[in-house]
Amino acid sequence: MQPITTQQIEAGYALAKERYAALGVDTEAAMTALAAIPIALHAWQGDDVRGFESADAQLTGGGIQATGNYPGRARTADELRADLDQALRLIPGKHRVNLQAIQGDFGGKVERNNMRPEHFSRWMDWAKERGLGLDFNPSYFSHPKADDGFTLTSRDEGNRQFWIEHGIASRKIGEAFGKALGTPCVTNIWIPDGSKDIPVDRKSPRELLARSLDAILAEKLDSRYNLDAVEGKLFGLGLESYTAGSHEFYLGYAVTRKILLCYDTGHFHPTEVVSDKLSAALTFLDQMLLHISRGVRWDSDHVVILSDELQAIAQELVRGKYLNRVHISLDFFDASMNRVAAWVIGARSMLKALLLALLEPFESLRTFENAGDYTARLAMLEELKTLPFGTVWDYYCLKQSAPVGAQWLDEVKQYEKTVLAQRG
Ligand code: RNT
Ligand code: ZN
């Protein structure tokens, strides 16, 4: 690919700046605002959600699936950190990394209820050196005690207690991340528990879930270090008829316990959109977590692209001034392509959506709306779509010392040749 010159980027930007200024939009302010938004890269894209508990760890159960067999999967936490380093170099701005409990440096068998901050000390050192924040997720899948599809809702008290202890251990790890890195860790609980076929008792698992969560959250942790979130879902693979941790369940739970609610954009009926739900939930919640994913016909976890819905979500975050209340993480796992590229595509798309939203003349649009001038509102929304957004994005990448345009792909191809292809 013929690289674009700095001069060309700056000339394009100068014109774009004027076009936006004519609408009262300050492109410099938009870029400053964008630079302050961290996106959490979900580490589980790099290892196909297998983790490092054993050399032959597999993703089993949980109603989720990574499909594809592209070479280069990270087989160790060291490989995963190297891959994340490579991805982060290609994404403008300062971001975060979101870990699964199964991705620690265990050095031998460690049970999930015995996981401790020391199993993540290498991650903390790594993040500290790079000035990155870390987020965390207890892993309630790929485990013999989750094989029957029940964790925090298990009728077996011993099993339930085991998974409660995993939740408690995870919050302690989150707290350690927050203390070490000076930025709170969002510790997000998602469980797969549900039923393939029509259950007769929908009530008991939900009552058990509330009790289990209360036990996990019993100890109050300082919100400067750890923030708790709960993630609901409509259905999972093999769990089509019932999910104990449904959206209504967790909305009620998060509101009453004053914790964060997580919306995963793949976890709703395909015709439902998260963009319409944010302002509803945020009327009653202080903070939220987003798992940005792309479902194709089902919760397929495809790589995030700059879709209409991604733009609508970004618009809601910007228009509602929610950016300081909503934590953004990516969440998808595609094993059919270069996994480093998958992170880069997803993160750059998220950032583009946010920049587009930051470049919107929201107040003028709202003035039209409040005056009942829906003609002007629609006309302007359509005109905005062809403003020279791309040149502002290019300039932003340049200023952030990130590759401009598809140049990043050359670097990924090089990394694939020299590093990923050497993995068996
Ligand atoms: C699964 C949830 C959950 C997982 C990760 C692996 O449907 O989205 O967030 O993707 O915990
Ligand atoms: Zn998710």
From TrEMBL:
Protein name from the UniProt record: L-rhamnose isomerase
Role noted for this protein: Catalyzes the interconversion of L-rhamnose and L-rhamnulose.
Residues annotated as binding Mn(2+): 267, 299, 301
Catalysis performed (reactions): L-rhamnopyranose = L-rhamnulose
Main location: cytoplasm
EC number per UniProt: 5.3.1.14
Cofactor or coenzyme needed: Mn(2+)
Subcellular location: Cytoplasm
InterPro entries tied to this protein: L-rhamnose_isomerase (IPR050337), Rhamnose_isomerase (IPR009308), Xyl_isomerase-like_sf (IPR036237)
Keywords: Cytoplasm, Isomerase, Manganese, Metal-binding, Rhamnose metabolism
